[in-house]
Design a protein that fits this description.
Elements lengths: L7 H13 L5 H8 L3 H11 L23 H39 L3
Protein name: Transposase
Organism: Actinomyces radicidentis
GO molecular function: DNA binding; transposase activity
Amino acid sequence: MATKNYSDEFGRRAVDLYESTADATLKGIAADLGVSRGTLAHWVRAFGTGSTAAPPQHSSSGAKSAGTESAAVRIARLEAQNARLRADKVKVETERDILRKAAKYFAGETNW
């Protein structure tokens, strides 16, 4: 199998995607991007910040109504939700950018 060379920018974006995805695994992200797990692990060591998105927090009392939670608890819950949504937005934007670049690359590669 031929060795593939990826740009540093692609590697950095892949690491951004990995770090911004809650509950992400190297294997899962690598499979989504079509690279080997070892390649992604190398990029994480080279370009990673060492921080990953926090997994979603679930309330221990699922039956709690909005009227009974205090303002501080509500603010904390909304801030956590906001952080998750921002991380999801970054993930979707990164995936979109990768797909756009791949489409441009493959469109320019055709010799019809």
